[in-house]
Amino acid sequence: MKYLTEYRDGEKAIRLAEEIGRIVTKPWAIMEVCGGQTHSIIRNGIDQILPKKIEMIHGPGCPVCVTPLEMIDKALAIASRPEVIFCSFGDMLRVPGSKDDLFKIKGRGGDVRVVYSPLDAVQIARKNPDREVVFLAIGFETTAPANAMAVKVAKDQGINNFSALVSHVLVPPAIEAIMTAPGNRVNAFLAAGHVCCVTGFEEYPKLCEQHDIPIVITGFEPLDLLEGIRRTVIQLENGEAFVENAYQRVVSEAGNLAAQAVLDEVFEVTDRAWRGIGVIPRSGWRLSKAYRDFDAELKFSVSDITTCESELCRAGEVLKGTLKPNECEAFGKECTPRNPLGATMVSSEGACAAYYNYGRFVQLETSSSAL
Amino acid sequence: MTTDTNRQVAQQDAPQGIDFDSLSCPVPLQDYPHIILGHGGGGKLSSELIEHIFLPAFENKHLAGLGDSTVFDVQSGRMAFSTDSYVVQPLFFPGGSIADLAVNGTVNDLSMSGAKPLYLSAGFILEEGFPVAKLKRIADDMGAAAKKAGVAIITGDTKVVERGHGDGCYINTAGVGVVPTGVDINPTMARPGDAVLVSGSLGDHGMAVMSVREGLEFEAQIESDSAPLNEMVATMLNACSDIHVLRDPTRGGLAASLNEIAASSNCGIVIDEKSLPINSTVQSACEILGLDPLLVANEGKLVCIVPEASAANVLEAMKKIPHGANAAKIGTIVSDHPSMVIAKTSIGASRVITIPIGEQLPRIC
Amino acid sequence: MCLAVPGRVNEIFEDKGTRMGKVNFGGVVKEVCLAYLPDIEVGDYTIVHVGFAISRIDEASAQQTLNTFDELGLLEDELEELRETDYEKNSQSTASNQAEKIR
User: Fold this and answer.
1) Do C2 and A2 touch (CB under 8 A)?
2) Chain B environment of C48 (Cβ under 8 Å)
3) Which chains contact C through at least 3 pairs of Cβ atoms less than 8 Å apart?
4) Interchain CB contact of B280 with C (< 8 Å)
5) Are C76 and C53 within one domain?
6) Which CATH topology does B195-353 take?
7) Given Cys at both, which of A104, A315, B7, B280 links A100, Cβ 3.0 to 4.6 Å?
């Protein structure tokens, strides 16, 4: 695939890692914000070829994982209703609420369907005028334009049996929350390339300045990630802290203006809870007043469902890089990939799940030293 | 179970000793273009299905008797016996159908113990309203697949469930085969130092089905790899009588098969990602949906664990069969990290290949 | 967060007033919403996420990035001897490197 395969060249990746090794003199903790980047790092083993001085901390940027328990419970309540066709992205189906997940609801007779695009859910609503079609609209700024368009199309075309259960989250407030958390160890961020291709990166210079951290907008393939890390390390070593775009073929400073216009129309900023982290002020989007009629939370009166996160789970600390997954008391006991408590165990690339899967291997490879 | 199965085929009023050349139709099937409950009731309608659909499609001498069970001769020695049920949706997909899977799946399960498959049974569970024409197409395809694989479908059964209680058509097949003398192939036999081979490109079947699944459709030249593997296994056994393990990586893909072998043999497995045969279009489809081709189903591929010294010979034998042209050595059995499968990535690092918890779903993240 | 894949726009059309297109991703063609890229043309490459084209790929920048990597390579070649010793050390330490991080 053009613009993909070229950025996976193994030999060039090793050279880039060596180049980083030549630059780095001090230990640095770099957080990749985005779950897609975490996936690529684990999938390719990028952290293994980096110099030991560089520690990659996996950030909170998996929208599936950070969707709060409460929102999942609301989704499950709606999906259980006989008149509802509940549409979701595939990766949400296995995410557990406090008792069930969407798979189990489906097993008990709920009409739960996987869609590739939010517009597919609108199409299902059009084809089933006698049913209520609800779309679970999760995601960061990258997914938001698609979800916004689905709601807009439904409104414009009068498809009133469509509604969205919205749980959108935003990257800059999360970076802010991590930087201001007690014990924070993050020295620099790789910003999520695909988020920035929607939003641009005009919001980032002030974060760099306030917290004295480099932010490098980075892509997802091995060479993109290594290039992002290389540029970050150069800044760190030189004592600099500015916004840099290492994903220029896709991201422009202004972002996608057409998408931003629709986002402004359909959504408004709200406080949002993050699974395992808690409420971050002004860190999410909900439907704006003009689109309230399409808000599934109101339509199905599930606003009063409240669920507390597990007290055992310390995902928030793991996400902030202040706790190693295996230092958590629930790790591998109450909390496993099959029965995850928090965000970081839910996704296979979450820091805790990665430790769970990969840790066994490392333990064997280094049996002489205690893990 | 055998008795019950065959009672359905051999209806009491079914004609004995069908003459295939002069089939006549007492009640024309077109009177019933769709399956009704009566087709599973054991009466005239049931016999009609047998007479006009199954017998012509599966044509073989064993069916002529239509007894409560079918009797066949066996040699002395060891036999293999296997069963599988097929519920794929949609029923027809690029490169095959539920019919091909139902025959090849059981033929392949038998082949994975080194057996020469001989006879299959076919059980149909049909939903009321299922088009008879589709059933005919499925039966004809099964007959053709059996012929191609060199096996005979010699007993069967049909049941009909009420509308809404099934998904059109489910098929169960069971099969028996004979294991050649001296062949001992099972998942516990992998030994450190053995080579890991696959017979061709990975993930074709799963992505072909995905391409026509409602809501995920895409246009691509991807066809299911559904194929019988018995001829390939016979050729491989000719080249090397000491094959340790054979598996067909169906549901759960290569990842599940390798993990099962590693666990059963208490060995580790290391594979090299660069050596995996994957069609570029399948890879592209996996990229879009966020799927790992190692976890995607195959229906005409095998994994073979063989002593390193014989690897080249076995590989050559696989390549002689048309659907083995892309066979490749992909890894090695090791004594380290028992029951774990590790992949060397394109950048020279490693990752753990885990067994998927359930069905792989498209990701957004 | 966001699985987005590059593809080439094959075809552009309107569907109930929404700008849509067919995009070819390495041999796989899917219908994609182009509403957010009003200027994109047939033959352009775009990044697609959940059925929406969200950015036009700047082919010149893409080439420039690749050139940077190649230049890094050239610099490497000059230091080849040094690199080889480094590389051996690096590959041997891969597993323990990971272990160290996890610890």
Assistant:
1) no
2) 288
3) A, B
4) yes
5) no
6) Phosphoribosyl-aminoimidazole Synthetase; Chain A, domain 2 (3.90.650)
7) A104
User: In this predicted complex, what is the ipTM?
Assistant: 0.92
Same domain flag for C33 and C76: no
- For the domain covering A65-170+255-299, report its CATH number: 3.40.50.11740
Its domain, for residue C19, covers: 4-57
Contact across the interface for A4 and C6, Cβ inside 8 Å: yes
Domain-wise residue ranges, chain A: 65-170+255-299, 315-365
Report domain extents, chain B: 2-179, 195-353
Q: What is the pTM of this model?
A: 0.89
Partners of B348 on chain C (C-beta within 8 Å) are 91, 94
Q: What pLDDT is stored for residue B295 in this prediction?
A: 94
Test B288 with C95 for CB contact under 8 angstroms. no
CB B233 within 8 A of CB B246: yes
Query: Which of A139, A248, A355 is nearest residue C1 as measured by Cβ atoms?
Result: A139
| pLDDT over threshold 50, residue B52 | yes
Nearest CB to C3; choose among B283, B349, B363 = B363
How big is chain C by its Cα radius of gyration, in Å? 21
Q: How far apart are CA B142 and CA B153, in angstroms?
A: 9
Question: Is A347's pLDDT higher than 80?
Answer: no
CB-based contacts of C57-66 (< 8 A; 24+ apart in sequence): C57/A3, C57/A249, C57/A250, C57/C6, C58/A248, C58/A249, C58/A250, C59/A249, C61/A248, C61/A249, C62/A3, C62/A249, C64/A248, C65/A227, C65/A248, C65/A249, C66/A6, C66/A7
Chain A neighbors (3+ CB pairs < 8 Å): B, C
CATH superfamily ID and name for B2-179: PurM-like, N-terminal domain (3.30.1330.10)
Shared domain check, C79 and C65: yes
Taking contacts as CB-CB distances below 8 angstroms, the residues of chain A near B89 are none
- Look at B63 and B265; give whichever has higher pLDDT: B265
